[in-house]
Design brief:
rod-shaped; 76% helix; mainly alpha
Length: 117
């Protein structure tokens, strides 16, 4: 049986890993073993943080809505409950954007929420 050489495949794998770790500090971008460790860590962090980003944005939106609603004398929980009772189906992302960019429309939504309770 003929001998199978793994050189081309190994080189391809090494080049792929080194390409992924370009920009890392120290030997993490130039030595294969260190680069492979850094790559595994980086991919783990990116997977985790794609999920975390969703939580972080939701917290930010809730904070903005709460601050804007309290300026009109209504806490966040009562504001959201009033919107739900009034049948207003705007998500937190849109409400936070309105609170920041269009205070007049947000004030109208606060009045709608107050009237529904």
């Amino acid at each position: 049986m003929t001998r199978v050489r793994g050189g081309p495949r190994a080189r391809k794998r090494h080049k792929r890993v080194l390409k992924l770790t370009k920009g890392q500090r120290g030997t993490k971008h130039s030595l294969y073993r260190r680069a492979h460790e850094a790559m595994l860590k980086s991919l783990t962090y990116s997977y985790r943080d794609r999920r975390r980003r969703k939580r972080d944005f939701r917290r930010l939106w809730i904070s903005r809505i709460n601050a804007a609603a309290r300026e009109h004398g209504v806490p966040y929980s009562r504001f959201m409950a009033g919107l739900r009772e009034a049948g207003v189906e705007l998500d937190r992302k849109v409400l936070a954007d309105l609170a920041v960019k269009d205070a007049e429309t947000f004030a109208h939504l606060v009045e709608v929420a107050k009237a529904a309770q």
